[in-house]
Amino acid sequence: MTDTGISPAAPAAGTMRRAGAAALVIGHCAGLVDLVALPVWVGALIARYGFGPKEAGGLATLFLLGAVAASVVTARNFNRLPRRPLAVAGYAGAAAAFLAAAQQDGFAALAALHLLGGLSTGLALSIVHGTMGRAANPHRLFAFAGIGLGLFGVIYMGVVPQLMVVHGGPVLFLAFGAIMAVAALAMIAAFPGTPARETAAAAHGRFAPGVLAVVAGVSLMTFNQAMVFSFVEVIGHARGFAAQAILGTLIALGLVNFLLPAPLAALLETRLSARRVVLAGPAVQAALALGLTFATVFTLWAPVAAVFVAVQIFTHTFAFGLLSRLDPTGRAAAATPAMLMTGSALGPVAGGLLMEGASIHALGLTACAVAACSIAAFARGTRPAA
User: Fold this and answer.
1) Ranges of H-type helices in the chain
2) What is residue 260's three-state secondary structure?
3) Inter-residue contact 289 to 330 (CB < 8 Å)
4) Please, are residues 381 and 212 in contact by the beta-carbon 8 Å criterion?
5) In whole numbers, what is the pLDDT of the chain averaged over residues?
6) Residue 337 and residue 31 in contact, taking contact as beta carbons nearer than 8 Å
7) CB within 8 A of 259, min separation 6: which ones?
8) All domains in the chain, ordered by first residue
9) What is the pLDDT of residue 98?
10) Using CA atoms, how far apart are residues 314 and 182, in angstroms rounded to an integer?
11) 233, 324 Cβ separation under 8 angstroms
12) N or C: less crowded end of the chain, CB within 10 Å?
């Protein structure tokens, strides 16, 4: 038994063809479009549709809550579901919802379509992540998916905001619809099958010991990231940093996220203990949160901001591999959207309450408390067997 608390062997799985792996990476990028586009999304709803911050945030939250609900249900029933048809249907349904949203400008219609888009996306993305969790090497596949998401983010931020300037707000939803349609086509063309022997061995009972604790650890880290990162720009302005300097920091952050954490996680897969990484990740995240919220000098604040999200990406790659070994059925991996999007939905709300009710410093101190809970959860979930 290694210090990960589990066998280092990968879950039994058939060898996945490159086309199948590529389809899953495309599905990962499309399903996590909120991680890339959320600032542009909310900003467009305010600036181009005339909604207030509360309404704009509410629409994005409806999408996220729909995705979380669908992910929870899908993960629980992952091994009973027809995966390929549901992955196709999920992305196609999300594409239809967003293309319909491009024709609407009323809050009620957009709210219903955001919820439908979230439910469809959560269904498809859970199927994708559960299938990734049953690959021969889930850690490496998730790392490549992270690299793909980083590249997707760079392209999206370079293209879509410029198109909205020229063609208006509907471009936001047309772009989302096109992205989801591409993912649906990828599922049709190359969604990987599951060998019959693997399906027969899939469990439907309770999770193995430690799985839920690791899930809690990941969810808490995601919450912490969303709580602090949502207010990076606000903090920079409050410290008196120049707007161009803050923008440059955010651009650097995007490049760091593309170039550093996922490739590094892939390279260090066999060199670092997954248990040690997931125990150290929340502590590093908390230290950076303190730097972000307490630093008053730009030369200290900017490097901390640029690497803040990278810690979550790096740690989660190891956590994904860890969960896939703890639960070879893929059900825990299928819950990845719920882990990510719960934090995305709740973190900004908590951060806003802290910023308005207390101070910027309270944000960093709360991040330390949440990190301690995350470390405790990871420690419990990866405790070596006696």
Assistant:
1) 18-31, 33-47, 53-76, 83-101, 107-133, 138-167, 170-190, 196-201, 211-229, 232-238, 243-259, 261-267, 274-294, 298-326, 331-334, 336-357, 360-381
2) coil
3) no
4) yes
5) 85
6) yes
7) 150
8) 18-201 (1.20.1250.20), 211-381 (1.20.1250.20)
9) 97
10) 27
11) no
12) C
Helix (H, G, I), strand (E, B) or coil at 47: helix
Contact 180, 300 (CB under 8 A): no
Give first-to-last CA distance, the chain, whole Å. Answer: 10
Spatial CA neighbour of 345 closest among 15, 159, 142, 72: 72
Specify the 3-state DSSP secondary structure of 96: helix
Distance CA 61, CA 361 (A): 26
Query: Cβ distance 149 to 155 under 8 Å?
Result: no
Distances (CA, A) of 327 to 24, 320, 379: 19, 10, 17
Handedness of CA 219, 120, 150, 365 (dihedral sign): negative
Question: How many residues appear in the chain?
Answer: 386
Q: Hunting for tokens 């709210």 — which residue is that? A: 111
Give residue-wise pLDDT tens across range 192-213. Answer: 876 544 444 445 556 667 888 8
Measure the CA–CA gap between 30 and 228, rounded to whole angstroms: 24
Rounded CA separation 230/152 (Å): 20
In the chain, the amino acid numbered 212 is L
User: Could you tell me which residues come within 8 angstroms of residue 244 by beta carbon, excluding any fewer than 6 positions away?
Assistant: none
